[in-house]
């Protein structure tokens, strides 16, 4: 397949995304009075994540499923990597496009490994390569191959099933990944973690991802660009999250952005962008006296206890140790929430507030301790973000004002060129 790479970032970086072009794409379901998707045209760049967001029934899923032809368009063209795929064999097409859905879509009678191996096997990969790929994919989505390889989907949590679903969608190395509300059915904390994982994956893989959600916060967090869709998949605005938050195109988009745009901005900054501090830690196997000494010499009134896999386990304060009487079994406060470096400041803030102690532990891809972010760092970042927003909004207002004044002058002067001028001003 020939691939057209349109963005300089993806060219030559080993990224394998492909462009997706939709041209006047239309779907009219039999028996419906009008089209459900009406003449949609858009270009999605190679290696970017585009999120379709919009109210229920506006045609997000139908548009997405036309890209891999699970739904056949009634009009228009689809090009992937520059190649017109509108009429190609849909089964062949689907082997080149990963697809992840809400219920994970795993086959219940197949093991995790068999599920992941499915498409590479159908595509005719040699057995050895398929086997290696399964291990690689499990590792990629943060599941220990030794532990999960032979399990059946029913033996997994909802979040683990979604991870396997993503591993399966990516197994045959497709340039394009379509995701239809993949995290819609899991609890909010698991959803946050799955979103973080997807961001990390995308940093490594540079696929072209089209992601459907009706959760605007999720769209802000994941999208390089967001397409806000209204009825019949008409595009209300297609732009970066920053642009949509600071300059919504019309009332429909503003309504969708909703209240608290400033707080939503917190979704655009990652934990990796703020200062992560090192914190005194001890391990569960350390002798109590050593833990005590470390806490005393640390200058903090708290220390973080890590479990055998170096994952944050408990916060221990001085008083906890006094009461421990030789055993840490019941001492301290269990760590209730952690964030990764890909989490947003909003996630971190939520975790800090939930934990009620002014800090949250940052962990790596297997949950191992990496550092701590505290309330003060978060508050400073929030202040900076809000200040930047205020400046930007003031600039946009000033520009608008200047444009309006220009137009009024031109009109007052009865200038022949008024039409042309106001056209320029509006543009
Ligand atoms: N098989 C079908 N036959 C007839 N109409 C359909 C069919 N599938 C979807 N529709 C209609 O097409 C429109 C768009 O549906 P679609 O599922 O694409 O919307 P959506 O934006 O993904 O909605 P949601 O967020 O609720 O999943 C809706 O009005 C729906 O009723």
From TrEMBL:
The keyword Membrane does not apply. Keywords: ATP-binding, Nucleotide-binding, Repeat, Transport. Signal peptide: none annotated. Residues 1-11 have a biased composition (Polar residues). It comes from the Bacteria. One of its GO terms (biological process) is glycine betaine transport. Residues 20-257 form the ABC transporter domain. The keyword ATP-binding applies. One of its GO terms (molecular function) is ABC-type quaternary ammonium compound transporting activity. GO terms for cellular component: membrane. Residues 1-37, 397-427 are annotated as: Disordered. SMART domains: AAA (SM00382). Gene3D superfamilies: CBS-domain, P-loop containing nucleotide triphosphate hydrolases. It holds the Pfam family ABC_tran. It is an enzyme of class 7 (translocase). Its EC number is 7.6.2.9. PROSITE patterns: ABC_TRANSPORTER_1 (PS00211), ABC_TRANSPORTER_2 (PS50893). Belongs to the ABC transporter superfamily. This is ABC-type quaternary amine transporter.
């Amino acid at each position: 397949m020939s691939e057209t790479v349109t963005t300089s970032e993806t060219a030559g970086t080993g990224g394998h995304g492909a462009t997706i072009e939709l041209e006047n794409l239309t779907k009219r379901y039999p028996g419906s009075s009008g089209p459900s998707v009406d003449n949609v045209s858009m270009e999605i760049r190679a290696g970017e994540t585009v999120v379709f967001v919009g109210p229920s029934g506006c045609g997000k899923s139908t548009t997405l499923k036309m890209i891999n032809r699970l739904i056949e368009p009634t009009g228009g063209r689809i090009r992937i990597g520059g190649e017109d795929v509108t009429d190609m064999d849909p089964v062949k097409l689907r082997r080149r496009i990963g697809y992840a859905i809400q219920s994970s879509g795993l086959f219940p009678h197949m093991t995790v490994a068999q599920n992941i191996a499915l498409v590479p096997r159908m595509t005719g990969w040699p057995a050895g390569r398929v086997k290696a790929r399964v291990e690689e994919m499990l590792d990629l989505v943060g599941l220990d191959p030794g532990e999960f390889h032979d399990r059946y989907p029913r033996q997994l949590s909802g979040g683990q099933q979604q991870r396997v679903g993503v591993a399966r969608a990516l197994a045959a190395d497709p340039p394009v990944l379509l995701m239809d509300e993949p995290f819609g059915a899991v609890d909010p904390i698991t959803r946050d973690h799955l979103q973080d994982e997807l961001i990390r994956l995308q940093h490594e893989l540079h696929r072209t991802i089209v992601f459907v959600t009706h959760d605007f916060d999720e769209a802000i967090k994941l999208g390089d660009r967001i397409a806000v869709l209204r009825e019949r998949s008409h595009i209300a605005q297609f732009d970066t999250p920053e642009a949509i938050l600071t300059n919504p195109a019309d009332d429909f988009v503003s309504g969708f952005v909703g209240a608290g745009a400033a707080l939503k901005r917190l979704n655009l900054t990652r934990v990796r962008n703020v200062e992560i501090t090192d914190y005194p830690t001890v391990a569960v196997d350390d002798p109590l006296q050593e833990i005590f000494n470390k806490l005393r010499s640390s200058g903090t009134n708290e220390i973080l206890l890590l479990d055998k896999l170096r994952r944050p386990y408990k916060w221990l304060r001085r008083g906890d140790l006094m009461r421990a009487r030789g055993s840490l079994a019941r001492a301290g406060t269990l760590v209730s929430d952690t964030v990764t470096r890909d989490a947003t400041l909003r996630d971190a803030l939520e975790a800090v507030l939930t934990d009620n102690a002014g800090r949250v532990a940052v962990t790596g891809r297997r949950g191992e301790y990496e550092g701590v972010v505290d309330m003060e760092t978060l508050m400073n970042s929030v202040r900076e973000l809000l200040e930047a927003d205020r400046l930007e909004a003031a600039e946009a207002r000033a520009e608008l004002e200047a444009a309006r004044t220009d137009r009024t002058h031109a009109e007052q002067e009865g200038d022949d060129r008024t039409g042309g001028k106001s056209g320029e001003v509006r543009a």
